[in-house]
Design brief:
The protein has 173 residues and is an all-alpha fold. The chain is built from 5 helices and no strands.
Length: 173
Amino acid sequence: MTEGAITMALYLYPIGNALMTFTAGLVSDRFGRKTTIIAMSCSAVMCYSLFITGAMLGWTPLLTGFAIGGFMGSYWGAGDTIGGIMFSESAPTNLRSSVTVINTLLNGIIGGLATIVTIILLPLIPKETFGYMYLGLTIPGLIGAIFIIWKYVGETRGLDLKKVTGAEWDKKK
């Protein structure tokens, strides 16, 4: 992209970001946290795919800027719901800091590994394929997160969080 095209893309980046962040709040209030995480993760996959496709095919910078903004808003909407709300609310009071530290540690490890892979691959692959590399690093993680949350995360709606022990999510035997 030229500098002018990048500037055009940056006009709609904050709008896409704000729209998806706002949408995450609406979905969370209306349908619950688990639904929000799944919906925003799916939105992140779609927006990022649209961004990469648009950038590679030379679509209008306004669309690609809106798409990457939508990705960031969706990504942070899902991440904030997982890391800032679900972990802290669903963990018993005496375990909250441990749960939050584990979440942060896992994010750091996965982010660190992705950074190492990126550092190794960037000098080896043509710059025209950078988008595919980032897509290849992002999409599997988001799809894995969608599956794990869909299948294994319990909803906290309707619970008296002052009485949560953690046993509420134990698998039935």
